[in-house]
UniProtKB/TrEMBL annotation:
First and last residue of the signal peptide: 1-31
SMART domains in the record: Sema
The protein's name: Sema domain-containing protein
GO aspect biological process, one term: positive regulation of axonogenesis
Cellular component per GO, a single term: semaphorin receptor complex
InterPro entries: Plexin, Semap_dom, Semap_dom_sf, WD40/YVTN_repeat-like_dom_sf
Length: 389
């Protein structure tokens, strides 16, 4: 199933990606623009994730059943097949299951772990069980233990995963946001978690950054058992700012199955050992000047900064910390944007976002808010003291 394939030349033609954008920025002053491009081959090739090893510019691209490594000149230096894999959607990877069939492996997580010099890859097969690849040689790979379910962070649906800060240290936690994908409940990972990647001898293992089973404390939060299979939260993007970890999510307005999907930003404090500080606020994006369209479905997001001209034109206070979200609009009751409605781009200043979270948490203390029933169906009122950044 995992085979190495060498020359990847001439296998049909399909444009996959190029570095035009990057080069445009770097080469503005040069008379000619050199565009590097790689054209894949057979039309069945679907690319899904891309990440650069910032150390040397190597580029890793994962797609359905494939993982490529390019050098900084976009020449293929390595390639492995990651599927199809003998699998079944309800199979516990720790057990031997009957009736397996060849199943495509879609890429869900592709991250460079700078500490161990490995590439973390998790796909859609084997309940999202991850694999580590050497950044120098993709044939050198180590599976995570299928016995430890914390190692299942891929899955049938798209997930968000990124290395971030914990305890003031850079890149020491792997933050994940994982939607429920219909698998047997006992094999389902927690919705949001801060994980630690451990390496022992040649094996890798994921654990919660903090876990005390006796006290029931861990760096994770889950959708309440009662709602986990019906209240689906899709994770679009994740980032950190000013001591908090944020996820852009698409979920229903409330647990009522007839309620509409909306976009919510969820937040936990960066060093919260039990994710007690978990808070949600709704993000809205409306078209101004004309018919007011309410865009409800976040499709992609980017946290970054804007330039001086942009700051002046749009009257941005803090040009270093803004969140852009591209939205679509869905038909009623659907969590997918329909092309019919077009799309919108909204920008949020983190100052405003912080203020909104603070207000939400104050409301909570004053008992005007309540604990989110899809997080804890037993708690009718706010009872926890959370930090208000
Ligand atoms: C891997 O981590 C889990 C907890 O997430 C732990 O129970 C297990 O013992 C660890 N395995 C190894 C080999 O350390
Ligand atoms: C919550 O925090 C506030 C402010 O820090 C404090 O005054 C209050 O006593 C705390 N409440 C509880 C129940 O711990």
């Amino acid at each position: 199933m995992f085979a190495r394939m060498s020359p990847l030349s001439n296998r049909g033609v399909r444009l996959v990606f190029h570095r035009a954008v990057l080069l445009l920025m770097l080469n503005l002053c040069r008379p000619t623009l050199q565009i590097l491009k790689y054209e894949a081959s057979d039309s069945a090739t679907v690319f899904q994730k891309i990440i650069m090893d910032s150390h040397n510019g190597d580029l890793f691209v994962a797609g359905r059943n494939t993982l490529y490594m390019f050098d900084k000149d976009l020449v293929i230096v390595d390639f492995v097949e990651t599927g199809p894999v003998q699998d079944r959607a309800d199979c516990d990877p720790a057990l031997l299951c009957p009736d397996l069939s060849p199943t495509d492996n879609d890429a869900r997580v592709l991250q460079v772990d700078p500490k161990s010099g490995h590439l973390l890859f998790c796909g859609s097969v084997k309940q999202g069980l991850c694999t580590m690849y050497s950044l120098r040689d993709l044939t050198e790979r180590q599976l995570f233990s299928s016995q430890n379910r914390v190692n299942y962070i891929g899955g049938k649906k798209d997930v968000v995963a990124f290395f971030g800060k914990w305890g003031g240290q850079d890149f020491s936690a792997l933050y994940v946001g994982i939607p429920y994908d219909g698998r047997p409940m006992e094999l389902a990972p927690k919705a949001i978690a801060a994980l630690k990647l451990q390496q022992m001898n040649r094996a890798f293992n994921l654990t919660y950054v903090v876990e005390d089973a006796k006290l029931g404390v861990r760096t994770a939060i889950d959708i309440d058992r009662e709602y986990k299979s019906s209240y689906i939260v899709n994770y679009i993007y994740g980032f950190q700012h000013n001591g908090f970890t944020y996820f852009v999510t698409v979920q229903r307005e409330n647990v009522n199955p007839g309620s509409d999907y909306i976009t919510k930003l969820v937040r936990v404090c960066e060093n919260d050992m039990g994710f007690y500080s978990y808070t949600e606020v709704q993000l809205s994006c409306r078209k101004q000047n004309g018919v007011s369209v309410f865009f409800n479905i976040a499709q992609a997001a980017y946290f970054g900064s804007v330039g001086k001209e942009f700051k002046d034109k749009f009257d941005v206070d803090d040009m270093e910390n803004v969140l852009f979200i591209v939205f679509g609009k869905s038909d009623q009751g659907s969590d997918h944007a329909s092309e019919r409605y077009g799309s919108g781009l909204c920008m949020y200043e983190m100052n405003d976002i912080q203020r909104t979270f603070t207000k939400t948490q104050k409301d909570c203390f004053s008992r005007r808010g309540r604990i989110l029933p899809w997080i804890n169906s037993d708690a009718p009122q706010c009872m926890l003291n959370v930090s208000t950044g």
